[in-house]
Amino acid sequence: MAQNTPMTEAMYYLLLALTRPAHGYRLMQQVNEASGGRVSMGPGTLYGLLSKMEKDGMIQLQQQDERRKTYALTPLGRNVLKQEFERLQMLVNDGKKAQVEQL
Predict the structure, then answer these.
(1) Rounded distance, CA 94 to CA 12, Å?
(2) CATH number at residue 90
(3) Span 10-24, average pLDDT
(4) 65 CB contacts (<8 Å, ≥6 apart)?
(5) Which range of residues forms the domain containing residue 50?
(6) Which residue from 51, 41, 53, 46 is spatially nearest to 81, judged by alpha carbons?
(7) Are 78 and 16 in contact (CB under 8 A)?
(8) Which of 26, 31, 86, 87 sits CB 3.0–4.6 Å from 13 for a disulfide?
(9) Closest CA to 11 of 26, 25, 23, 27
(10) pLDDT (mean) for 89-100
(11) Are strands 69-73 and 22-23 parallel, antiparallel or unpaired?
(12) Which pTM was predicted?
């Protein structure tokens, strides 16, 4: 993922969920909880994103047993999450400067 390229909500919440290693079903629950129910991720979306993020070096398979794969963030993944968090904070701060909340 290129630096300063906005990511989708699903990607952002999945990286947030991966700040603690977890398996697929638990990740879907954590995304739903962290987003207050705004982002509900099904298995197709989840495993598509996990595959892409693993290929891009943002996450790695940490453990695998017969039924579950546990994933964790890599240092690159942590950096990408931090950059996106900072980008989102700048957007909110710019909105505050423009007094958007008074509209």
Answers:
(1) 20
(2) 1.10.10.10
(3) 96
(4) none
(5) 9-98
(6) 53
(7) no
(8) 31
(9) 27
(10) 89
(11) antiparallel
(12) 0.87
